Amino acid sequence: MVFEGRGYWRGKITDFEFGVDAEGIITRVGKSVRGSPRKNLGDLLVLPSGIDLHAHFRDPGPTDSVENFDSGTVSAALGGISAAVDMPNTVPPTTTADRVVDKIARIRARAHIDILPYAALTGASSVRRLGHVAAGFKLFLAPTTGDLKVPETSEIPTLLEEVRASGLPLHVHAEDPAKFNPRESPTETDAWDRLRPAAAELAAIERLSSPPPGLRIHIAHVTTAAAADRARELGAGSEATPHHLLLSSSVFGTAFQKVNPPLRAESVRKELWERFRTGRIPMLASDHAPHSISLKEEPFAEAPSGVPGIETMMPLMLELVRRGDLPLQVLVRAIARHPALHLGLPRGALEPGCEANFLTLDFRAPRALRARNLSARCGWTPFEGRSAIFPVDHYVRGNRIVEDGEFVGSGHGRALRATPLPPPLPKS
Ligand code: DOR
Ligand code: ZN
User: What order do you get walking across the sheet with 50-55 strand by strand?
Assistant: First the structure.
């Protein structure tokens, strides 16, 4: 199949054509590509689809859970995401090789986009076995949703060394509980920020300050410009989330805006946005963490942390592109190219050898986000009423899974792993 259209290719918007083989891989791209059959994508803008480095699909989970791989990946597809990293704080948590294998079976049974099941790093003895089956590793340095053990400080160097030997990436939830202020009794988001302050995030990043060479370390959900800068200095990757970039604790927020790490004050949010807008935070990730409305309606202190986001992340950012507040190139790199490079996957660009995963968009058609119009099963969004641009169509490996804003896919999601990198050769 040859697709003809106008889209983002090599950093610019241009008229172009690309050929896709029977496996869904792009074979040729250019101003004019021969072959048939042909499909003209009209005057819509073509972009590579996104990769979400951070999602909590809650599968396995309790029977009353508001998410699983089926519902979460329909949301992802509608939001322009064709692959996502799945976090291990499920019920039960992904801490053994058998549980990773079970997750892979669940992904194959009901995911509509590709999923990378990460394992939790809880003890050095399990890393080697996990490294044979998991897509990557997640280290929680502070307690959060779920029942995962936070490793002792003294264990961390051995854990990092074991992960380095696996060649897989390590994503870190960086908050240091020693810097929390437990005397706060939180009733709104500003107090939640004081309880788990930005200083705790920086302190946790410092705990990783001499990672073993060759470790692929990635700081999840940075909330401040200083944290993003420190991650860069350490040679770590980092991601920012739409909620930390667009929402702040300065506007009185209920438990529906309670997240870990917390939303920060408006001045801090603005600095974080500036880092992101100027391309100095390499990646964007949703930290999609849905909870039911009834749990979020509990008193602030007891309500769980987390907001849904996989369906709305790219549409919100595309609207900021339309308004001229965010360069398209920065967005495509942060949501597609850099995550693909980080994971070592042939995706995230419309280039020969990459999968033909792409969206068509109508920049003349922003619409107000309404939870009732989203597919998200939790039934709410912290971005209610904001303007967004949703994909018209979404193609994965050359097949359409969203058509005219409706999900039309059928369970072709694969369980993927980050491509393991060999450890660097010892210096002689
Ligand atoms: O707000 C959060 N929610 N932060 C996390 O670290 C976990 C997540 C969840 O799983 O609900
Ligand atoms: Zn998370």
Answer: 50-55, 81-86, 114-120, 136-140, 170-173, 217-219, 237-240, 283-284
